What we know:
Layout: H1 2-5, E1 7-11, H2 16-28, E2 33-37, H3 46-52, H4 56-60, E3 63-65, H5 68-71, E4 77-81, E5 92-93, H6 95-98, E6 110-114, H7 123-126, E7 131-133, H8 146-161, H9 177-193, H10 202-215, H11 220-244
Parallel strand pairs: 1-2, 1-6, 2-3, 4-6, 4-7, 5-7
The chain binds S-adenosyl-L-homocysteine (SAH).
Amino acid sequence: xxxxxxxxxxxxxxxxxxxxxxxxxxxxxxxxxxxxxxxxxxxxxxxxxxxxxxxxxxxxxxxxxxxxxxxxxxxxxxxxxxxxxxxxxxxxxxxxxxxxxxxxxxxxxxxxxxxxxxxxxxxxxxxxxxxxxxxxxxxxxxxxxxxxxxxxxxxxxxxxxxxxxxxxxxxxxxxxxxxxxxxxxxxxxxxxxxxxxxxxxxxxxxxxxxxxxxxxxxxxxxxxxxxxxxxxxxxxxxxxxxxxxx
Length: 246
Ligand code: SAH
């Protein structure tokens, strides 16, 4: 079930533009299950369909019900969203920390509930959920557009559900520290040989090099390349020295 099965429940949505935008952003982030509680507009109106663009099927398959309990039928976990900091016993949580809870048990249906554009959710409606989320906003204006609130939540859910970013191809992993250490030793000895470093300044200069390389998060391949350069310089110096001795 997971993300694709998660229900986005909208209570009495009134704006077709919002509905279309919500369908689109749901599809953008891999959600498909839209439930409308007593919608105040036609989810297949021209405006809604236009805003949905390539997500018309989400509007077409939206389930229409008359009450919130009907929308939540079969659900085990439900989170309600609210813009308002109310006189409310249960804490309002940050979506990033609370929303993953909806996906914790992929076999149990879960719902994320949004309120009306003008009045949000009543306390009675909020009470159908076990947890409450408020998207942190600037204190001067905490009420987001409904479709924007849905978009932020879908994004957060999708980041949690996303498979780890493509693994780095082999050789691009961070270089083991002892390999980097060998490089520093090689570099120091070469820089002493060519007179760039003096024994009394070597330690502090090498510290600067270490800081520079640390910032670069060297990969194994890159250390191999740097060591290759040093080896080539050593070889060139030796060859040149031998030529001069001829
Ligand atoms: N005046 C209403 C605003 C409703 S906005 C109120 O104070 O509740 C419509 C819906 O968008 C809300 O019911 C909620 O589901 C969602 N929403 C808007 N801003 C939000 C925010 N900052 N955090 C979480 N949900 C928000």
